[in-house]
Amino acid sequence: MGHYFKILVLATLTVAVSAAAQAPGSSKPPAGTQAPAGKMPPGARLARFDPSLLQPGSLRAKAPEVYEVKVVTTVGDFGLKITRAWAPNGADRFYNLILHHFYDGAAFFRVLPGFMAQFGLNPYPEVSRAWDKAIIKDDPVVQSNHRGFITYAMAGPNTRTTQVFINYGNNERLDKDGFAPFGVVTGGMEVVDKLYSGYGEGAPGGRGPDQGLIGNQGREYLEKMFPKLDTIKSASLVPTQPAGR
Predict the structure, then answer these.
(1) pLDDT (tens digit, 9 = 90+) per residue, 39-83?
(2) Distance between CA 196 and CA 148 in Å, rounded?
(3) What one-character DSSP code corresponds to residue 152?
(4) Percent helix, strand, coil in the chain (nearest 5)?
(5) Cβ neighbours of residue 45 under 8 Å, at least 6 residues apart?
(6) 155 and 11 Cβ atoms separated by less than 8 Å
(7) Distance between CA 181 and CA 175 in Å, rounded?
(8) Within a 13 Å sphere around the CA of 132, how many CA atoms are in the beta-carbon half?
């Protein structure tokens, strides 16, 4: 599936360092639809994805300077506030993905306590293939990777696509490697803390999900092999209030 299924290991670390010290490795349904409730019930099917997700090049809307996102998961809800000035390219990409419900049904497939929770692989293989090489250019690092900040995963310079992670700890060490936060959890961080982490690090370094197989087989692979993973039921923009209200 290309570069965004690789796991980037920080160059300054040795192979003896624990998985929690690894950098996040990078690399969808019509509005209003939701994935089935529960963890990953066997045989459960998602509503069909938004067809525009098969044409990444057409999704280039400029994001508002600040926007909010509500994420409904299998363990509760949390909110995100995205600030475009922190990382314009990343904020614009995330805005378009949210607008077209790319993340609906996606699993939190790499959850490492004390480090981060990663998601952003679509449950439909054909959508994953479409976004495999839909990279965006890097943004300068303006904010630091503190607890609750959301950042793109990547596999080197200018390789960001759709995968993101939420920092559990204060991971300032990621700043120097170009991981640029573009938003922050504004409510429900306790929900993020509860995401299932029992599978640990992903393959090949651990026994968790293989990103390549997620991309090739989608939700079917995760339902069969990693049924306890928590998932996103829906991720949608929060309507803005008219001025004066």
Answers:
(1) 544 334 455 889 999 999 999 999 999 999 999 999 999 999 999
(2) 17
(3) E
(4) 25, 20, 55
(5) 36
(6) no
(7) 9
(8) 17
Confidence of residue 244 (pLDDT cuts 50, 70, 90): low
Name the residue ranges covered by the structural domains of the chain: 3-32+59-237
DSSP state of 224: H
**Cα–Cα distance between 5 and 10 in angstroms, integer?**
16
**Alpha-carbon gap, residue 207 to 158, rounded angstroms:** 28
Supply the pLDDT for residue 44: 41
List, for residues 73-93, the tens digit of each pLDDT value: 999 999 999 999 999 999 999
Q: Which residue from 55, 161, 72, 169 is spatially nearest to 112, judged by alpha carbons?
A: 169
Average pLDDT over residues 137-155: 97
| Cβ neighbours for 205, distance < 8 A, ≥ 6 positions apart | 7, 19, 22
Task: List strands edge to edge, sheet with 66-73.
Answer: 110-112, 116-119, 164-167, 149-152, 181-187, 76-83, 66-73, 232-237
Does the pLDDT of residue 32 top 90, yes or no? no
Answer yes or no: CATH 2.40.100.10 is held by domain 3-32+59-237.
yes
User: Dmax over Cα atoms in the chain, in whole Å?
Assistant: 56
Query: Rounded distance, CA 75 to CA 125, Å?
Result: 25
- The CA distance from 122 to 107, in Å, is 8
